[in-house]
């Protein structure tokens, strides 16, 4: 799914109105109806609803929602903050319709007025400000939002929580509605994917309001969401007469005394994600453990207590992942740097391999084109320096991916894939339970395996990131986020694949 800027979304609205021969009022009514459909599914008509409206088009959405809720049998009323000289034309139209229906269910609040002591069962719908807000609320508006946030009532934001920017992150101290749910029209906003915004958005639900498909398909953007539809376009079911030679060799390099579990998890994930053959290139101290934990994987010795040498015969069938449990011993660092001097094929570089690169930054220029770095935020900071917030860090990673002609997988709740061409893809699967030791090792094994299976590198990364998060969601549903381990993620990878296979015709 494409992620558009606020300006692009406004252009899409205008294009849709012209292409479909409708009015802006018709589009507002369509959006309000989708919101009401969602509220009907999620809440009882026994829940009274208070819709807090501004005087712009987001407020117009709120006034239309109030009217449609009343039509559906809800007890709903709207309060409007008089924060501007006049209403927008569509907001004024919807105010008139609501006033004709039930004038007593509409109240205008003058500057300095607030809402207090609401019964706890009242649902608050936030329709104060949409994506057109160009500066943080101040004065009375700021105080009003802060006072709303003190109320314990459930809150739903329409399109975007009021006060939250769509394309950037909020300034410290900004007043922003803290919603449990955000009903976003047609698209995710980029700010939704960053941790600084999560406290405000709650769970995000994208509502299809029928905006122009041709505009969406033909409008360029560098920002995308990794969703099920995009993954189904990538995933390839296995052909009927396949054999293990068709699915490549996965070579995973890593492990050191005390960290053998990391390379074992990576190997297990590679096996669970369809690699034809898996090799672990690890120190001798891990031999017994690795053979017991993953008997399907072959072992190639790389040293005694840590990796001292990296030796293999490079061929087109082999994909290479290096770093899980590798350690940063001087001998290991030398082995990695010597390997990079000779490497020609792109590789997946994770964990301690990244930490070694952070200590030898000149070696970044040795990375084969289209190699993959998979840092978490702290590892990226070691590589490229401090960033003031997560969006700035993502932009830094995007710039470095273009500079070094590599892919960077910036791990997090919404893992971001940054490409050599400047694209940024945010993942939509995963949960906080995956913030556990070994989760990244599983991701390394998974994406290295998919590269071995002849997915293009970008496709392997998109598919691997999505499956990793989805496997984590499946595992968390079975054992809780708190009890989730990296082994559970690897174990649930098969169920994530089964979801992609659902609906595909059985082979002869």
From the structure above, extract its key features.
17 helices, alpha/beta, ten-stranded mixed sheet, 508 residues, seven-stranded parallel sheet, 41% helix, single chain
Can you describe this structure?
With 508 residues, the protein is α/β, with parallel strands linked by helices. It is built from 17 helices and 17 strands. It has helices spanning 6-20, 24-42, 57-71, 89-101, 139-150, 195-201, 213-218, 228-232, 260-272, 287-293, 330-342, 351-359, 377-384, 390-404, 439-452, 457-479, 486-501; strands at residues 49-53, 76-81, 106-109, 123-127, 155-158, 181-185, 203-207, 223-226, 249-253, 277-282, 298-301, 318-322, 348-349, 372-373, 407-410, 416-418, 424-427. The strands form two sheets. It has a ten-stranded mixed beta sheet. It is elongated.
Briefly summarize what is shown.
Helices cover 41% and strands 14% of the residues.
